[in-house]
Amino acid sequence: MPEAPKANSNGGDYSLSEKNKTTLQFIEDVTENADQVQKRVLSEILSRSAGVEYLNRHGLSGQTDRDSFKKLVPVIKYEDIQSDISRIANGDMSPILCSQPISEFLTSSGTSGGERKLMPTTEEELGRRSLLYSLLMPVMNQFVPGLDKGKGMYFLFIKSEAKTPGGLVARPVLTSYYKSNHFKERPYDPYTNYTSPNETILCQDSYQSMYSQMLCGLSQNKEVLRVGAVFASGFIRAIQFLEKHWPLLCNDIRTGTVNQQITDPSVREAVTRILKPDPKLADFLEGECGRESWQGIITRLWPNTKYVDVIVTGTMSQYIPTLDYYSNGLPLVCTMYASSECYFGVNLNPLCKPSEVSYTLIPTMAYFEFLPVHRNNGVTNSISMLKSLNEKEQQELVDLVDVKPGQEYELVVTTYAGLYRYRVGDVLRVAGFKNKAPQFNFICRKNVVLSIDSDKTDEVELQNAVKNAVNHLMPFDARLTDYTSYADTTSIPGHYVLFWEITVNGSTPVPPSVFEDCCLTIEESLNSVYRQGRVSDKSIGPLEIKIVEMGTFDKLMDYAISLGASINQYKTPRCVKFAPIVELLNSRVVSSYFSPKCPKWIPGRKEWIEQCTN
């Protein structure tokens, strides 16, 4: 198998050009020999896992060849292994899914039964994730040279974590990575020279973390060559934080002191090492931030910035106009494709347009298979994540090198950490090839209808939440005639909007407080990722219900039919994104109501908390 590039242990013998050359050659080797690498990866995973209970349950009995694996091991979704995951979470240390000890669980943004999915991982996987990170900058250097001469201003944050009854930590994948020695004690590398000290990233308090990272970024503004966050929504939140707090930040830069609101001792100490009194810089920042327009604020405050590094594919594409406004049209770069289940691949053409982003899957990361997805009237609906595959559908899966250009597939992975033929739920389209390895456009997450940040709400969950809420209307002899929704990102944080058409048969009008109760009931009914975004991360705003005129959904159907929809097959869409449709709905709004408070949310899973309290 091609050898992965080695991390440098010290800066003395550091040769950046040699490292870049080695990394790019590694990408050439693994993509040129993609099928051989994939065959070896599968054999290695199965050899290591020969004694695990899950594979023996399916009769694999130590066999490591591809044919036996595909014949005996089923394609699964999360619910198929949920009982195994629960056993591990509750303290069963036997080799259920993986021969190596499960070191922690990574909590997915996808949910099952309203709770985050738990993905098993091992210590070794941290090294595999670090490998993928190490590929990004040598690729980027081909397009934007000289990035080693300055710093990156990245807004990175940790999220809350919980412990399973068996004592394993459960936390998001990025929190796991930032808290690991792979990140905290990373060897010298000019490409990982960030304006934010580790202490500011690892601060649990989101306000103190954001404030201190922004302060460090502003105080080093001339050194910044690239800016970013994980998601586009997170970076925009940072800019709008600056819009709100720039007077305090400028005062700190003027005096060389840290605001007393920052109480974390390690953060204060780390920022103080960087911060020096700079009245001239403070005057400049005040002059720019005090202007009426914030268009181009990124290039105005950080004038040497070459690009914005954020994810703008999938649902994050809704933030592109806002990013263009703040950045004066700087390139928006999506560098990598990853999830809690596995890190997948990199963008080898990072300066492409956001609509043209494609990711090359790195064959050493996991064993990849692809389930063909067929569309009907432009809607991805052939293979629902809600059902298991029959024998014929299982046989449709193809290997990495056998995908067809232009065809859409659902990604299926087998990982070193104990997932076997697991349906990730992402729909990808083959855009081309790098040598023998395919390059994919990310199309969508299956079944997701609403998303603002890392939340993912599907149609069934939304329907159940609405069903719970309309009970508040019954005392007034009112009923919900029809509804749809959309993710409103015109303000930050964005929020869910539901358009309701109601019929009131009673003589008493429905009071505003009842509609507010409906908003809160919907929020209380949504998954824990959404509720965490509302309560802890503050990345999602209060849910809004807009009451529309009678006959609005008839108008919506008429409009869809005018665009070519079949009257016989028309169904009200439960989520709308097309601007003219949103405009039509907004033009018929008669009143609107917001959730009056945050829904309930606490870290950890409900059943763990119940076990601890009993």
Quick gist of this model?
This protein has 22 helices and 24 strands. The chain is α+β, with helices and mostly antiparallel strands.
Provide a descriptive summary of the structure in words.
37% of the residues lie in helices and 21% in strands. It is α+β, with helices and mostly antiparallel strands. The strands form six sheets. An eight-stranded antiparallel β-sheet has the order 9-10-11-18-17-16-12-15. The protein has a four-stranded mixed β-sheet with strand order 2-1-5-4. It is built from 22 helices and 24 strands. The protein starts with 15 loop residues before the first helix and ends with a helix. α10 crosses α11.
Helices and strands in order:
Blueprint: H1 16-32, H2 34-48, H3 53-57, H4 66-72, H5 78-89, E1 104-112, E2 115-121, H6 123-141, E3 151-155, E4 162-163, E5 169-171, H7 173-179, H8 181-184, H9 198-201, H10 206-219, E6 224-231, H11 232-255, H12 265-274, H13 279-289, H14 297-301, E7 307-311, H15 320-327, E8 332-333, E9 336-338, E10 343-346, E11 359-361, E12 367-373, E13 375-376, E14 379-380, H16 391-394, E15 398-399, E16 408-414, E17 422-434, E18 437-445, E19 448-450, E20 457-458, H17 459-469, E21 478-488, E22 495-504, H18 512-525, H19 528-535, E23 544-548, H20 552-562, H21 579-586, E24 589-594, H22 606-613
Parallel strand pairs: 1-5, 3-6, 6-7, 7-8, 22-23
Antiparallel strand pairs: 1-2, 4-5, 9-10, 10-11, 11-18, 12-15, 12-16, 13-14, 16-17, 17-18, 19-20, 21-22, 23-24
Helix pairs in contact: 1-6, 10-11, 10-12, 11-13, 17-18
